[in-house]
Amino acid sequence: MTIDLNADLGEGYGIWTLGDDLALLDVVTSANVACGFHAGDPLTIRRTCAAAVERGVRIGAQVSYRDLAGFGRREMEVDPEELCAEVLYQLAAVDGVARTVGGRVSYVKPHGALYNRVCRDPEQAEAVVAAVADYDGSLPVLGLPGSVVHRVAAGRGLPVVAEAFADRAYTPAGTLVPRREPGAVIHDPETVVARAVRMATDRTVTAVDGSEVPVDARSVCVHGDTPGAVRLARAVRDGLVRAGVAVEAFT
Amino acid sequence: MTIDLNADLGEGYGIWTLGDDLALLDVVTSANVACGFHAGDPLTIRRTCAAAVERGVRIGAQVSYRDLAGFGRREMEVDPEELCAEVLYQLAAVDGVARTVGGRVSYVKPHGALYNRVCRDPEQAEAVVAAVADYDGSLPVLGLPGSVVHRVAAGRGLPVVAEAFADRAYTPAGTLVPRREPGAVIHDPETVVARAVRMATDRTVTAVDGSEVPVDARSVCVHGDTPGAVRLARAVRDGLVRAGVAVEAFT
Amino acid sequence: MTIDLNADLGEGYGIWTLGDDLALLDVVTSANVACGFHAGDPLTIRRTCAAAVERGVRIGAQVSYRDLAGFGRREMEVDPEELCAEVLYQLAAVDGVARTVGGRVSYVKPHGALYNRVCRDPEQAEAVVAAVADYDGSLPVLGLPGSVVHRVAAGRGLPVVAEAFADRAYTPAGTLVPRREPGAVIHDPETVVARAVRMATDRTVTAVDGSEVPVDARSVCVHGDTPGAVRLARAVRDGLVRAGVAVEAFT
Amino acid sequence: MTIDLNADLGEGYGIWTLGDDLALLDVVTSANVACGFHAGDPLTIRRTCAAAVERGVRIGAQVSYRDLAGFGRREMEVDPEELCAEVLYQLAAVDGVARTVGGRVSYVKPHGALYNRVCRDPEQAEAVVAAVADYDGSLPVLGLPGSVVHRVAAGRGLPVVAEAFADRAYTPAGTLVPRREPGAVIHDPETVVARAVRMATDRTVTAVDGSEVPVDARSVCVHGDTPGAVRLARAVRDGLVRAGVAVEAFT
């Protein structure tokens, strides 16, 4: 039994920081590093990559819409050719920076509104996938199982890696309960840890109606933007280890 | 006798364009491609690289201060570690984009105020050179002969390539007459062409006091931001060819 | 018979320019000045306002999504409270700049994707209208007749001013034929001029099916982003004057 | 005996925050609100202004170089005409936003590198002062006593208000000891409070050589970017009140 823990890292900008990156890097095995479009200035990117390499944490390019003011959380109607070039630019920049500190980008995970959009929009999904394929066709795309971007990536021969969310409620169909609905986010740490363990060991999760739903995920996403979040992430990792799960990167 | 012609390319941003890139790409042998910090959105970068590759024109990363509003023409007191990361980010981004269209970055040329600054400031010069060396120690730095950045680059084992300006007046010491002085820029096309030819054939230029000054340049910089500029660049190339000079990239 | 001619002005940014602003300011009576979010740096804004004031041209705030790279042409899912603050910031900035050169903002026209969005989206329309109402409840909103933003503005007691497009095909229902459909844009100058004149004199336009449709517009929008566009705008103005129409601002 | 306490407020951007603005607004009497160029998105500006108005805290425009990535802390060679337009744009934007929540900008304080630059550079000082004078010639410029910007402002008839720093060492000449020198910043809370009280009551401070130096300041600058900073600011205010000093805005 093996699971990866991934989290968003390097999401500061200039003087501003977000979360405790170093603490979180001691927990996760894959770091989704911001690429400069929603967060992440070059120096932050470089330091985050160096800290990840020191700890043996894998580096992913967390590509985004160009939207610093909105932290990449606002959906945008970007022309596919332009979106493709933007994703490519971000991916290349972070990969090049990572290589100077002894690492490299080993996967791609879209961020925020782009993540949600490419789960359902074939046009933007194609744009993202084309950028990854053009840059390096061996890079996996980390995302929601069953998403459009995964289908498109697989169709182009890119590896895909599925992730699950231990702190999110699931529908009986195996999709996430939308955030705006009550109970969508699970706050009780023990419950979150238990769900993470079952995701890794039984490859299943209890849906909102009490039914058991299969979860076929190689990675579990954790958060680090508050002190509580880092503690929870640490608890998830400890719970997994106690349950005999190997916490290992997928790349 | 061989000379390279270099020019700034891809200096649009979004809807805005600057100069006739395609016409200029038919003239030069080395394209200093804007990297997104003073100009150059990802799609413009990609298209410019593709057009350069089609014509066999070499691609250079025209790295800059982060200053879109000022087109990179305003000197900035950037911390060296940050400047180094910024240069590295730009270089990696454009190199990665170039590779997807069959090219690659084969040299680096600082832009605008950064170009001027690293001619004299060892601290910022070190920062730029460190970025290039960290990324790929075989990449030449294109710049003014005798500049601090060339001295620093050579000290770290990077190749340096010197450029000259056919449309600029030279002092008897072989430096450029500052732009603010009268006669600093030469406008007469025939004179400019003749100076370019002598730079390539005699490796010399007539200074403002009438003396002959040695010019040890492997590249001549031309401009393309006006229709007249492109015509002049074309005339320089034609004059060089007529004089039996091989117009060839230095990489 | 009176009509206003409005056009987008000041849409450069730093070194980049778009269109011949001074030529266009000699044609129009209302200048939609870019506010810095899709185009328009502060110095360009100030110079554009000064040139408008010199010519007696009214100044409007052409408020936009924050999207320099996309020229405000990409729809964005902006939170209404944030959009409201962004519109307010732009409006206040340009009004304050205009006042230092003897003018003031006398109307508001949303730009690009925001213009299209508030024609149909009550939430974003409310956000824009709230910003205008909070700043100065006497400022008219220039837009499409029958649009959601006009209904919302009228509901809050703001004046609304309707505009028409002489170079766009109309449906029998009086709406614009979408740009992606063939024949949506009319290129023949004589036809455009004739349509502008009939819009001003008969307050009517011939729809794509040959029917006559009422057009209740106090302003006609012209363009200036190409030399041909400025000539056409000039022809429209001359045609209107020859037909005895007074070309006058609505404010 | 009356003193004002001023601090930088609203220095977040989008998702990022800096310091505890609400706690600090309960301490100070004048809020230097970021204007969007080094920090401060429109919604943050609006909320900060509203919170200031609720507490009777005066609002100042904390104008800056356009440098989000560097937080306005990097000196820039900006053309004076452009700098003037940039300052004017920022001032107008924040004033307009403040007015919609019942306040207004009642003074101007340059930020960071611009603050330092206009203390000594007449050209950039003129640009800043011209912007303020053009916008509203009754607005005071808050700054260092004896600075070039104060001299220039006074020369154009603008009111000037001097500030002092209770946590900074002073030279016998009454200037600040540069930050890079040892002992430049005083960390002991009791010492800082005592110095603030003497600045307000005796209008004097003990210089690094033990001599007493006159300090003619109507305002004392406090900081809020760390929890400790807010506590110290609160202690300074409490100390002043205990010493019988009226803590009141200068406008």
Helix segment tally of chain A? 8
N-to-C series of helices and strands of chain A: EHEHEHEHHEHEHEEEHE
Note the gap between the termini of chain A.
16 Å
Shape of chain A: globular
Largest sheet descriptor of chain A? 8 strands, parallel
Radius of gyration of chain A: 17 Å
CATH topology label of chain A: TIM Barrel
- Helix/strand-derived category of chain A reads alpha/beta
CATH class of chain A: Alpha Beta
Quaternary state reads: homotetramer
Low-confidence stretches of chain A: none
| CATH structural architecture of chain A | Alpha-Beta Barrel
Which two chains share the most extensive interface? Answer: A-B, 24 and 24 residues
Helicity range of chain A: 25-40%
Number of domains of chain A: 1
Mean pLDDT of chain A: 96
CATH level-4 homologous superfamily of chain A = Glycoside hydrolase/deacetylase
Number of strands of chain A: 10
Could you characterize the architecture of this molecule?
Chains A, B, C, D: InterPro entries: Glyco_hydro/deAcase_b/a-brl, LamB/YcsF/PxpA-like. 4 copies of one chain form a homotetramer. The first copy, chain A, has helices spanning 21-25, 42-55, 80-99, 112-120, 122-135, 148-155, 189-201, 227-242; strands at 2-9, 30-34, 58-62, 105-108, 141-143, 160-165, 204-206, 212-214, 219-221, 246-247. Helices cover 39% and strands 17% of the residues of chain A. The model of chain A has no long low-confidence stretch (mean pLDDT 96). In chain A, helix 3 links the parallel strand 3 (58-62) and strand 4. The first copy, chain A, has one domain: Alpha-Beta Barrel (TIM Barrel). The first copy, chain A, is globular and about 45 Å long. Chain A is an alpha/beta fold and 251 residues long. At the A-B interface, helix 2 and helix 3 of A face helix 2 and helix 3 of B.
